Amino acid sequence: MSKKIAFNLFEMNCVGHISHGLWVHPENNRHRFNDLDFWVEQAKLLEAGLFDTVFLADVVGAYDGYRAGPETALREAVQIPSNDPLLVIPAMAAATKHLGFAATFSTTYEPPFAFARRASTLDHLTKGRFGWNIVTSYLPNAARNFGLPDEVEHDRRYEIADEYLDVLYKLWEGSWDDDAVVQDREHRVYTDPTKVRYINHRGPHFSVAGPHLSQPSLQRTPVLFQVGSSVAGKAFAAKHAEAVFVGGTDLAAYRDNVADLRRLAEENGRSRHHIKAFAGAVVIVGRTHKDALRKAEEFRKLSSAEGYLAHQGGSGVDLAAYHPSELVEDILARENRPGRDRQPSNRRLPAGTTVGQALERVTRFDRGPFFAVGTVVEVVNEIERWVRETDLDGFNLRQFLTPGTAEDFVEHVLPELQRRGLYRTSYEEGTLRERLFGAGNSRLFESHPGARYRGGANLEAPALASASV
Predict the structure, then answer these.
(1) What is the CATH class of 6-294+367-467?
(2) Average pLDDT for the chain
(3) What is the DSSP code (8-state) at residue 349?
């Protein structure tokens, strides 16, 4: 297999991300997440391991669907307390030269103009290593935190997100020309106003005049990551995303979903090669198979079923309140509430799944399809098989211990991947987008919808100097 496999470390600026209960492990440093040194240390480790990015998840609400309140989430540290993912990036960037940063930010509750400047600032400070994970947010508590009575309906959230992206493209790609900043000391001109323009966006959800406040960064538009398995989510990803986290119940489903994503991209006038597909993965490695099993068993014993139930309850469906023999699909049909596809886990459940089966599924980490426990050779055999059978480009590595999970990967798994030619031996120079798509590709591809605003094209707005005459 000639493909180099990409790896991101799946992170969140909190104590308990998705490995619930493991914060109590004596070797876990998750309680240090408020300490900037914690993030700098991680960044240095990941750069030594040649990781593509540290992928920072986020939520803007509490998980209060389980047992009708946030008490379990608070007690179990289920993504609360948590901090802003964007604010730790500059410190990590200052301590590294190549590591990328993919951070989550929602399009549903905060206006696009302010985020456009934050993203450009981060792309400047990281020297073109910033990526944005686009989400539309799903927690009912998040909606209430921003003044709404309940979640915005699922497909409408994607309609808002589509316009949100359009505004951002106009600001990032169209508001400033590449050569607008002249820094002419002799004539006392820092920016040529004839090369900067308003965007004057007027749409059903946003009204934004511009101009963008930041000068063009190396990538202009950060690398666009997205998670979406619904019909609306897939359509959105095929139009906008450059890296997508796909789902599925088994390897065949992942293979079909990856192929479908690439097909949809082509239907949108894009190349199938302009989207990278990722999946979450559990890799537990030991010096012997017995040692790896011991680690996995230790993690299983410390895992919190209550924490997992609180997490899945964020969908608004509290499975623990129903009889184990009831069918999940019947419960979802009865509730029929607006919002996201209310699946009680991060993977779609097969038809006919009972509440008991769903609860057993969502309270365990030690199941497939991307679960490997064993020696270095055993887990790398599995990783190679996963990619070969699905056409995935890489994985988000799930953490159990910080920094132990990443340390095990760097010390044990990385050398074997390199020996087989499946992993880089040094970083490629350039921006994060160039690492994903090759040298010379710092900017969006011409076939991407954001590229249509370059140079002010398709904007009904003149340059500032001519507009003031």
Answers:
(1) alpha beta
(2) 92
(3) P
